[in-house]
Amino acid sequence: MLRGGLALGGALGLQACAPTATKVASASSRFGRPPLVPMRLTPDQIVDIKCCIRPFRAAGPNLSTEQIGDTLVVHNYGHGGSGWSLSWGSGEVAVTKAMSVLPKEIAVVGCGIIGLTAAVMAQRAGLKVTIYARETIQRTRSFRASGSYTPDSRVCLAEPAGPGFGDLWEQMARFSWKSFRTMLGVAGDPVVFHDSYGLSDTPPHRTEHPADPAITASYATTGRPQQQSEFGHYSDRLKDIVPGNIPLSAEENPFAAPYATRTSQMHFNFASYGQILLAEFFARGGRFEQRDFHAPAELAGLKEKVVIHSTGYAARDLWQDKTMIPVRGQTGWLAPQPDAAYSIHYKNGLAMSKSDGVCIMNFDTALGEMQGVGNSLEIPDRTETEAALAALAPLFASPAARA
Ligand SMILES: Cc1cc2nc3c(=O)[nH]c(=O)nc-3n(C[C@H](O)[C@H](O)[C@H](O)COP(=O)(O)OP(=O)(O)OC[C@H]3O[C@@H](n4cnc5c(N)ncnc54)[C@H](O)[C@@H]3O)c2cc1C
Q1: CB neighbours of residue 31 within 10 Å
Q2: Which residue among 49, 51, 54 is best mutated to probe the pocket of ligand 1, counting the most ligand atoms within 8 A of its Cβ?
Q3: Domain-by-domain residue ranges, the chain?
Q4: 323 phi/psi in degrees, rounded to 5
Q5: What are the pLDDT digits (tens) for 346-403?
Q6: Is it the case that residue 36 has pLDDT exceeding 70?
């Protein structure tokens, strides 16, 4: 999701400037930015639709420890819509706890972005690591995400997380940010920065979600969030390192929407990122064993006596953690468009062009973070993706079509 907290919406209004049919010609700014190549946002470009449950946990990720027989279990699951973004920082917390009993070898259960990252970090700290999991990263829910640095996206509910969570979150988010920066410019572009444009028909404004007094139910009374104001937001703590949104003048705005902001956003390309992490894991002597666990006691049967537990949303059943709440999300994928490497967000549509494809998401702007809450159906819905494409298409309309 585009970062920056600027609300977009309203009816289509006056156009700022005139795009051509082949290139969206930006009026020459003082330093002459090259014109943007328009995205091809038509349903015939769809190559895949993926559906996934965010492992949302009311109190935020579980990073606690517990003893099962003679085995120390360090939990590392429940990262909501922020798992990729917090993976390194969360791994740092988990590996530090695992190291506290001075093991020579550890097990990691789970090979999504959280488990695999923690496994590599443990190896870098000198430990021998075996990953036990049902699937390797390419088949996990992690590979069905969208892939941006969004460290406080549905990461917790403010009240159950408590006032201390902000500090832990900031520590994890900053650690991850630094770690991702070491992967910039690496062959295969696992991590990149692209321009992201927020487009609207009315002047952009900061999104606030005050509590609706008409809604009296809450997580405390129902076990599920009932409105957006219950979610925790912490991104203001990173203002000093994460690029902000700037408004564009009419001359700088090449899109057929009257208002535009631009920021520079970090993205992850899943295919190369996953391969690079797996390659490092095996190069450092890591072992992968395909296993399906059915109860916590089975972890105590492993030969490693320190286990990092990273099964994501599956912890709801495996660990009977009923504070995990499913939050359904869907990404549509268009064939890659490397000449149009930027992102746009307009009305309910988002298009994020990366080397692993153009990711399309459909946001219900009225529901916001409540979209998908309580929905555990992982069945793709093509109409949802097509509706997002339809919302975005007018941005590239020719002047004649818009007249
Ligand atoms: C639509 C969508 C978009 C998203 N976009 C972003 C984004 O832009 N940025 C971001 O930071 N986050 C994003 N997320 C969130 C992110 O995808 C998750 O937080 C993250 O993938 C969680 O990773 P994980 O490793 O904990 O879980 P998973 O990827 O689910 O991995 C769990 C692992 O545990 C294994 N496992 C599970 N149960 C068992 C068992 N019983 N026995 C053995 N092994 C088991 C699985 O095989 C797998 O290897 C998005 C999520 C969605 C749905």
Answers
A1: 5
A2: 54
A3: 6-402
A4: -80, -5
A5: 999 999 999 999 999 999 988 999 999 999 999 999 999 999 999 999 999 865 555 4
A6: yes
